[in-house]
Design brief:
The chain has a three-stranded antiparallel sheet with strand order 1-2-5, covered by helices on one side. It is mainly alpha-helical and 234 residues long. It is flat and about 65 Å long. A hairpin with an 8-residue loop joins strand 3 and strand 4. Helices cover 52% and strands 10% of the residues.
Length: 234
């Protein structure tokens, strides 16, 4: 793992006195504890460091300059978390599932859903244009900062909104298999047709997407960074 660790507790500013270290996860004193997520997965973990010793050659860059490197990496991480490709993929999935669920048979539902998906398309075009502008040749030498925060906030909100729409489209069929089995048993209807596999994961996907607006720096923190940048510019 890499870690930003305080190496100078007497630094003049809290952003200074931090170094960038590489830590072998097999080092004595490193303990990893999985965090059980809402959908049942464990792809996030707690990591405990108990008197872990790290060789000096594992220092990346200069001593006490770790936050400079960390900001650079966070900018690229937040740009990636925007998930433009994932937004496109899930939007196409929503259109496909809407047709399979027969929502097109109800004129009102069809109109409301079409308006909702069209709004997502518009926002996605704007999101992609911002990302491409950031990656343009004249911009490559810059460290992505406020633009990356903008992409992270809007991209994660858009992905969550698309997943919520998928949940609405799937309806009760989005229940996880375990919950569905209990529900069918309660209704004494265990002989009902099974849920199509393309719908069975919708609820889990929606729940898993809640973390998108937290990691990489929560969206609340990103809004503060955006506001500070705008105020500084004026």
């Amino acid at each position: 793992m890499f870690a930003l660790v305080r190496t100078d507790p007497n630094a003049a500013k809290k952003q200074e006195g931090i170094s960038f270290l590489l830590i072998d996860m097999k080092s004595p004193g490193v303990t990893v504890r999985p965090i059980r997520m809402l959908e049942g997965g464990t792809d996030l973990n707690e990591c405990f460091l108990d008197n872990v010793r790290v060789p000096v050659e594992n220092l990346v860059g200069e001593l006490n300059q770790g936050w400079t490197y960390g900001k650079y990496l966070l900018g690229h991480e937040r740009t990636g978390i925007a998930g433009i490709g994932s937004c496109k993929q899930q939007l196409a999935r929503a259109r496909q599932l809407a047709g399979q669920q027969g929502l097109g048979e109800d004129a009102l539902l069809r109109a409301l859903l079409q308006a909702r998906l069209a709004q997502f398309e518009i926002e996605l075009v704007a999101l992609e244009a911002t990302a491409l502008r950031l990656l343009a040749p004249g911009q490559r030498s810059r460290v992505p900062q406020v633009e990356a925060s903008m992409l992270k906030v809007r991209g994660t909100e858009l992905r969550q909104a698309i997943y919520e729409t998928l949940l609405d489209i799937a309806g009760p069929d989005a229940l996880p298999f375990s919950a569905e089995a209990q529900f069918l048993e309660f209704l004494d209807a265990a002989d009902d047709a099974p849920v199509p596999p393309e719908l069975a994961s919708v609820a889990a996907n929606c729940l898993d997407a809640r973390k998108l607006s937290i990691y990489g720096g929560s969206n609340e923190v990103q809004r503060n960074l955006i506001a500070q940048a705008v105020l500084a510019a004026h």
